[in-house]
Write a structure and sequence with these properties.
- The structure is a single chain.
- The protein has 145 residues and is of the alpha+beta class.
- The chain has a single domain, classed as Gcn5-related N-acetyltransferase (GNAT) (Aminopeptidase).
- The chain has 5 helices and 7 strands; from the N terminus they run E-H-H-H-E-E-E-H-E-H-E-E.
- A 7-stranded mixed beta sheet has the order 1-2-3-4-5-7-6, sandwiched between helices.
- A hairpin with a 2-residue loop joins strand 2 and strand 3.
- It starts with a strand and ends with a strand.
Length: 145
């Protein structure tokens, strides 16, 4: 597994994270639409102020490779999600980040959603002990006990 570091998200990371989520191929893989700059910055302002959200920047070779986050949402109480910049794909960075994040976030069960066509993300979840719960619509729901 590659050597990554997880650190708290800083405001200086946000322009990089914004650019990562505007890549058309990355958006297609995620099944989530990108946000415009204002919406993105407001969204992250809320995340950074929310004490019930754990958000970390994924650092690989001293570069911001993406982010990973845990938040509370509806039926599937605690969720995790991650976004890896396209230039960092296929290096095992997402798997390494989820592995490390699971040691940081002790809440269980955790749930994650992956686009049904995003086999790479599904493999990341499987490698980290998530079990497929539901394959409805465009996304599938996964659970980690």
């Amino acid at each position: 597994m590659p050597k990554i570091t997880l650190r708290p998200v800083s405001e200086s990371d946000l322009p990089i994270l914004f650019q990562q989520q505007t890549d058309p191929e990355a958006v297609a893989m995620s099944a989530y639409p990108s946000k415009d700059r204002g919406e993105f910055m407001r969204h992250w302002e809320g995340i950074l102020k929310n004490k019930n959200v754990t958000a970390r920047t994924i650092v690989y070779k001293e570069k911001v490779a993406g982010h990973i986050i845990c938040w509370k949402e509806g039926k599937y109480e605690q969720r995790i999600g991650y976004w890896i910049g396209k230039e960092f794909w296929r290096r095992g960075i997402a798997s390494a980040a989820v592995t490390e994040f699971l040691t940081l976030v002790k809440i269980r069960p955790l749930f994650a959603e992956a686009a049904n066509h995003n086999i790479a993300s599904q493999k990341v979840l499987q490698k980290n002990g998530f079990i497929l719960l539901d394959e409805g619509g465009k996304t599938s729901m996964w659970r980690h006990a």
